[in-house]
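Fold this complex.
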Amino acid sequence: MRNFRNFFTRKRVRLALLSLTLLLSGFALYLDITVRMQFEGKRWAMPARVYARPLELYAGMKLRPEQLALELAMLDYRVAADPREPGSYRRQGDEFIIVTRPFTFWDEAQPALFLQADFDGAHMGALTFRDTGKPVTLARLDPVLIGGIYPAHNEDRALVRFDEIPPHLVKGLIAIEDRQFYSHHGFSARGTARALVTILSGGGVQGGSTLTQQLVKNFFLTPERTLRRKFTELIMALLLELHYSKDEILEAYANEIYLGQDGNRAIHGFGLASHFYFDRPLSRLDLPQAALLVGLVKGPSSYDPRRQPARALARRNLVLQEMRKLDFITQAQYVAARATPLGVVEKAPEGTSRYPAFVELVHRQLRRDYREEDLRSEGLQIFTTLDPLAQTSAERALTGRLTQLEKDRRLPPKVLEGAIVVSHSQNGEVQALVGGRNTRFEGFNRALDAARPIGSLIKPVVFLTALERPSSYTLATLLDDSPLVWKERGTTDWEPQNYDKEFHGQVPLRIALANSYNVSTARLGLALGVRHVMDKAHDLGVERDLRTFASSLLGADSLSPLEVTQMYQTFASGGFRVPLRAIREVMMADGQPLQRYPLSVEQVIEPGPAYLVTHALQTVVQEGTADALKYYLSPDLQIAGKTGTTNDLRDSWFAGYTGDRLAVVWIGRDDNQPIQMTGAGGAMTVWGEMMSRLDPDPLVPQVPENIESAWIDPGTGLRVDASCQGAVELPFIRGSAPVEIAPCGARSPVRSIKSWFERIFE
Amino acid sequence: MKKSYRVVLFVMAASLLASCAGMLPSAPEDRPVSNNNAVVALMDSARTDAAGGKPDAAVASLERALRIEPRNPRLWQELARLRLQQGQYQQAEGMATRSNSWAGDDRILRAENWRLIGEARLKRGDHQGAQAAFDKATMQGN
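Structure:
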């Protein structure tokens, strides 16, 4: 009986022990799965990183010293008295000494270069190696990082890889938060003992956390300060250390840690915090900035650098002091960093990209070729066509002009909206894209999504269709601008009016376009056939369906600024359709090239008619509706352009091109109310202001071989001697110029024939 | 950067040779593609890459050069040649046509462009179009 009881007790104990072990290992297994799931979920999502174009440097290039300084500032290059470190420079007047950052481009890795650049006015006069004085043929600056494409559940993060975390930040964290990080197994025995003592003496549960434990704490949704939670965290920290390396844990930590509050938006991770406090990517932080972020870990609200600058400064300096104690930084670094002001941007920027509208275009083009989840998680590097200098000019011109226009027109402030697309006139690369006057706003992108009636911007398509029939139409052909009533079954009669509410009788074709006459254009388009004109628009690159009503000839159809740009791109590149591109190359996370988006061209318009349309569009600027452009840009630039205005002055458009750039500007209101301005009064002024900042190349189109020129009397369209008063020299497709030479001052074809007869019989 | 020095040396050597040859008419390859050294260097690395079986890298270099000199018909022609080699016949024709549009009265260049267009058309099975292009190539010589 006793034995039996003994046996029973022993068995019971064993059973109890066994089930306890089972329960514990079950619990551990459960924790193990939880911790790994949590960790993997955060770790494997590496966003695509999006870069601007790298600035190519070579002697003779068109670049002003201020532009180079701006590019270097956007790259966060440090100003140094004696630049030695990559990413630093010195400017003395027009002389720059630059130490470039090493960078792996799509095609080659470029080491850090020690350069000297000298300027000669608006050009780089010489580019040499600083140490040897030898000329540099071609060098690239590293590209500006302009954004990321983030995992959907982490849309509001700026995830960083371990190698993007500045070493100072890692060292600071270790110095102030967890000195044994690289040697412990997830928890510190001393810290835990200290915590236990505090708990047992009734001080509550706090402190003693390693970085690993702090990370684990973030895996829970609710904070809880109990012994049980503390124990669970400890086990999970141990498990985490078992599965992952220190660097992996630190990377996850850097992307998880809570560092501030922006209204109801929590700022998690050093990447986002770096944008939130300094408006720059994490990899570009200097020592005092990194130390400030490290200091925030302890209490983002009590050390908030915007609200509690004094406390934040003291905390930052404490971090620096600890770093100095451990000899992580030199005394000189310590002294210099301590003396630096906080350097926090006054207002937290919206979002993490400086150019969200352009990044959206990039994202859309990528979506055609990549799965969304790959874009958001594979760490792809996207090299784009964005020219930050052009983008800056476009943004400044739009925001500045809109404010001025509202004042001038007595409009309430902030009612006007606008959009701009700038492209390279020959290769179709999109260099700048502005989606609205709040350029940091990640919402409605007017450049891509605001389809508005294009008004007179369609007219060059009508005239191109005509000029492709040289036996019937030339630039000198007289068009009928007398009243027109168009009857079409099923619709009300259409009676187009000119903007000045007058009719102009017989007008030369090029003048009808220059002055944007509606009636003669409509009559011309109807004679050609609306369908033919709209087909021509498709040839030029418009993909959207266009209606074929008579009013379509005057731009009743709606297009986005980007679509208009594609259409005008074909004019700008001499009749060659060049698809607009925002991406050059895609590279894998490990630096392997993945894909190129090459230049492609297709001739869709014969060179002759394309040349004539450009000539007519130059007339628009020289003597037509856009002649006020001369207040912004020299007439010597021979710019080609077209104004566009829609019914009741709701939309103001301008599309134009120089020798090197094409740009389309739209201004209007989101509620589509009238804005009381024409294309010339609104959009053109933005265009002019923007281009004047960009030193455009003059537009000198190559003359096609089948083009000849003749002197014409504009009033009659007849060929006259060059010496006749008012005679203009015009290009013609060979064989289409009038053959007869009329005397000076001939009034009409009838009279000229008569005078010819008279000459014979006299 | 080293590569570009070699290019400059090569160009200097080539022009020296050309001047020694005296009155002989120079083939297009002997003339420097540009008087901008950056463009010359990029053209050279494009040729090296193309010969080394790296056509994508070659195209990338030519596009870089075209950003510097978008009106240089020699660069467009080189792109046409590469696209032809890669079997992208439509693009080959597009690039050669674009080269022609900037060629002015450079007959040698135009003839070569028409020859490239002819070959591209031939490869696409357009024999009539190819013949027309070859005819134009011959006409340029007259």
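Residues 2-43 of chain A form the longest helix (42 residues).
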